[in-house]
Specification:
By secondary structure, the protein is an alpha/beta fold. It contains 6 helices and 9 strands, in the order ββαβββαβαβαβαβα. Helix 3 links the parallel strand 6 and strand 7.
Length: 214
């Protein structure tokens, strides 16, 4: 049996919060595994202000969270044909970002927030993107380990990078966090490790602080 690939257009989904008229700041927020954009948006209220537009792309792959009906979640990729999904995700995010900048020429600064599984997707997209983010907030997840970060150190160091974890995160203990930090440390990529009291969640108060950090 021969496996082949065929590229076809498909319809992607995204959500907008905040100033949809004349924003000067943009946040692109990538959700985690099993989340949907419309529910993920409720975690991002602290990013909203009169100057800010929040863009929430949704993963291209959806599935029932339990059984064969009910609540639906989205994922950026699985282990099956992961390279094709990586390429599709990066193309989707780059084209969507371009569309938003074209629609809102008032935007002068943009940032990325990636949660859990969204971190690896954000890493793979951003290192090859033509857009320069002011901040990269990588929250409660693993970096893509198939990237040679030293090749992109100069680009990444143009951004302020925050690597954020709860002190009771049920998916990431200290050794696993350090393993991910090492990818940046060994590549001379500057970042700030930030912790908070909590589990595998978005802490709204801390997110607001990071959003306001200059």
């Amino acid at each position: 049996m021969e496996k082949h690939y065929f590229t076809t257009p498909r319809t992607a989904r995204y959500y907008l919060l905040g100033n949809t008229n004349n924003p000067t700041k943009l946040w692109i927020a990538l959700h985690g595994y099993g989340q949907q954009g419309k529910y993920w948006s409720s975690k991002l209220k602290s990013l909203e202000d009169e100057d800010t537009l929040v863009l929430i792309p949704e993963g291209l792959n959806r599935y029932y969270l339990q059984g064969y009906n009910g609540r639906v979640g989205a994922t950026w990729m699985t282990s099956d044909d992961r390279q094709a999904d990586i390429e599709d995700n990066s193309k989707f995010l780059e084209e969507l970002t371009q569309t938003i900048f074209d629609k809102y020429p008032t935007i002068i600064k943009y940032n990325i927030l990636a949660f859990s599984q969204g971190i690896a997707t954000a890493c793979r997209w951003y290192v090859a993107s033509k857009f320069d983010a002011n901040k990269l907030v990588l929250w409660a997840g693993s970096l893509a380990n198939d990237i040679k970060y030293s090749d992109y150190a100069e680009r990444l160091n143009k951004s302020k990078i925050f690597y954020v974890f709860g002190d009771r995160d049920e998916f990431f203990d200290a050794p696993k966090i350090l393993m991910n930090e090492t990818l940046l440390l060994n590549s001379n990529v500057d970042y700030q490790l930030v912790s908070f009291e909590g589990k595998h969640i978005i802490d709204s108060k801390l997110l607001k602080q990071l959003a306001n950090d200059n």
